Amino acid sequence: MRALSRIAQTLHLDFICVLTLKMLGLSAQWKGEVGQKQIDVALKIPEKLALVLVKPTQTQSSSNLSTEKLGSGAVVFIAYANMEDVLKAEFFHTERETKKTMMSNVVSASLPNTKNTMLPEPVNFTLRHLTQVDPEGQLTCVYWNQSRWIVDGCKLTETNSSHTVCTCDHLSTFALIMQMDRPPKDDIILNWISMIAVSVGLLFLALAILTFILCRWDPKVSNTARLNLSICLFLAHLLFLLVQSFLSHIRPHKLVCAVISGVLHFLFLSCFVWMFLEGLQLFLLVRNLREVRIIQREGIHWGFLLLIGYGFPCLVVGVSAGVVPKGYGSNQCWLKTDEGFVWSFLKPVCFLLAVNVILFITIIEYLWFTLAGRNKEISQLKDTRMMVVKALFQFIILSCPWIFGFFVNNSKVLEYLFLLITSQQGTFIFLVHCALRKEVQEQYRQWWKNICGSKDASDSFHSSKTFTMSQSATK
Known about the structure:
By secondary structure, the protein is an alpha+beta fold. The protein has 2 domains: 2-57 and 69-181, Chondroitinase Ac, Chain A, domain 3, CATH 2.60.220.50; 187-445, Up-down Bundle (Rhopdopsin 7-helix transmembrane proteins). The protein is 52% helix and 15% strand. It is built from 14 helices and 12 strands. The strands form 2 sheets. Strands 1, 2, 4, 5, 6, 8, 9 and 12 form an 8-stranded antiparallel β-sheet that branches. Strands 3-7-11-10 form a 4-stranded antiparallel β-sheet, with no helix packed on it. A hairpin with a 3-residue loop joins strand 10 (154-159) and strand 11 (163-168). It is elongated, with a radius of gyration of 34 Å.
């Protein structure tokens, strides 16, 4: 025991408790009645578990902590002083943003010469609260898993104003954490801005989709990728708007929320795949620039584009749901952040963005350096450069906001920027690819003339008919 005392002084431990387990019961060198204020922590081992832990008579090694050589075993129970300042509550990651407070000392229990595997019977830890429990707070029993606090295998069974009892099915390092919900005061303002901004973006996305479908385009330009990109963005933003509008009604239905998060995962991932396919088509167009070719004939077939554009996201979502079926359906009906499941979206996106960057660097190097000696007035070269510039700006607008998304929890300014930029992606697509294109402007004028012309013709017809009827009446 002197050696244990020296260890305790070195580690700044409150106490070390070595429990001797006997066949007919338990004896301990540290005793106290749970519930008394002077008791900080207590460990209760059920009789069935004690019977399992007791070992038969055998030759004991010097490292064995058993206090007897005949039919006994040992459990080491340690309480650390001020360890909660090192293993902080911030290492406990949850789906929603909460204020977390350490409510107990950090304690550790282990079995000498054994691994801390699943126990045949759970053990109870009684922990005294370090501070007063907030009535609106949520107490959680946690254990340390290499780099963070997690709850697997531990649950809260009983609590009062001064103590909490935790039940765990394994031995490890444990603590008690209190969570407090702190919803931002400007949530209502943010929701209204979100609804208005997303609605405006949806309007321009709808106009862009109609333009891509109805307009007659230059035959060397394929709108398959751009059209499907706009459709996926429209559906994703529309679903996001509906979910945020009725979130309080959807959230209690876990299955519905999980399905919605899976659909959003698929749609947003499809947007990045279609953006990659548009960059790939531009690369093929630039590569074949020496010969006048039609991209729809020499580029990627539309059927293959559809297969890649929707097949790859479907595969990612299917594998993600199969590997971690509980990863969908957070409090916001999005991907859960537990166990890094959100990377099932971020990893494919990062890969697609990296490939897109490589494609654009190659395209720009070819257009501005390899073809620098050519006549700059060649129409196809000028058109291609303009297409690349627009696609590059589109890539920046669609991808850069997700960088802000990594830090929205730490900055309200970035949260507003993320919301405004992502909601106006449809507006950008409409302005760059529709409203600012001369051929599209001509189409708009023609449509307007046709509408106004038919209206004028209808008015003149009614006026002529009225005049004829008035003449007949006069006669």
